[in-house]
Specification:
heterodimer, A: mainly beta, 11 strands, globular, B: six-stranded mixed β-sheet, five-stranded antiparallel β-sheet
């Protein structure tokens, strides 16, 4: 089954404690993205990656890091989480072929930073 | 830069009534346009997409949307609402080209369906 998986699904942590949210896709997609969802703001792109070792900032990259060492994985790293990073996070992937443009989303990770 | 505006953060309809969710976008080039639905405590599911083929796009669950370039709109409609349509709906745009893969979302519209 084609899917994007994220772990963990729920995470409660404290300010300053480094954490990583993993994302993996099994569709051999070139593009992967991270979004955060906040009430009244919709989803905003944090970072995206066009292929292995190629990443770029989205609209709200401050406080986040990413890496793309393998095509299937795109982890999101919060080096020093703060309460304003409490949010619902989604990973997504899509093919580079623009004729079949559709982003596939993971189930989401709900992060609470106290 | 691209942007998306969804008119109305909350829309309430009666079961069986027409559903109309409004979306306007700004993009310097012909865009790709999408509608996603999010049911409570779930992820995002693609309803339909416009990728420069037919301007009237049919999606899942009886929804459709019409791309109107002159109005820069991509409104979502369904002739007869069902209780199961209650969810949050997001319009999104991808300008393609060098911005391909960068989705910009509207703020979302929560649809409530009354019996």
């Amino acid at each position: 089954e084609a899917q994007v998986t994220q772990n963990p699904r729920y995470l409660i942590t404290v300010t300053g404690k480094k954490l990583t949210v993993t994302c993996s896709q099994n569709m051999n997609h070139e593009y992967m993205s991270w979004y955060r969802q906040d009430p009244g703001l919709g989803l905003r792109q944090i970072y995206y990656s066009m292929n292995v070792e190629v990443t770029d900032k989205g609209d709200v990259p401050e406080g986040y890091k990413v890496s793309r060492k393998e095509k299937r994985n795109f982890p999101l790293i919060l080096e020093s989480p703060s309460p304003n990073q409490t949010s619902l996070y989604f990973c997504a992937s899509n093919s580079a072929w623009q004729g079949n443009h559709e982003q596939y989303f993971g189930p989401g990770t709900r992060l609470t930073v106290t | 830069a691209q942007s998306v505006t969804q008119l109305g953060s909350h829309v309430s309809v009666s079961e069986g009534a027409l559903v109309l969710l409004r979306c306007n976008y700004s993009s310097s080039v012909p865009p790709y346009l999408f509608w996603y639905v999010q049911y409570p405590n779930q992820g995002l599911q693609l309803l339909l997409k416009y990728t420069s083929a037919a301007t009237l796009v049919k999606g899942i669950n009886g929804f459709e949307a019409e791309f109107k370039k002159s109005e820069t709109s991509f409104h979502l409609t369904k002739p007869s609402a069902h209780m199961s349509d209650a969810a949050e709906y997001f319009c999104a745009v991808d300008a393609g080209g060098t911005s391909y893969g960068k989705l910009t979302f509207g703020q979302g519209t929560i649809l409530t369906v009354h019996p």
